[in-house]
Design a protein that fits this description.
3-stranded antiparallel sheet, 87 residues, 3 strands, alpha+beta, 21% strand, Metal Transport, Frataxin, Chain A
Length: 87
Amino acid sequence: MSRSIRLGLGCAMPKPPIISAKEVLRLLLKYGCELVSVKGSHFKIHNPTTNRTSVIPVHGNRDISKPFLNAILSQLDIDSDDFFEFH
């Protein structure tokens, strides 16, 4: 039995794909977010629709973990369903 059912949480969020930070950055820019600044390997992204900002670390071709990707989308106030359908 899955943890979400045992906890009575109902349907869980769709599982995000495992993708690199570069790919996440590219998709967010395509989604309509704007690049605000770059400091080293950290890219600051702004969502003009919701007026929210998040920082994405881009370290080579390393993948972003699923919880971290969900946190980025939450910080930018982007619905994960919409983002992954857009993907």
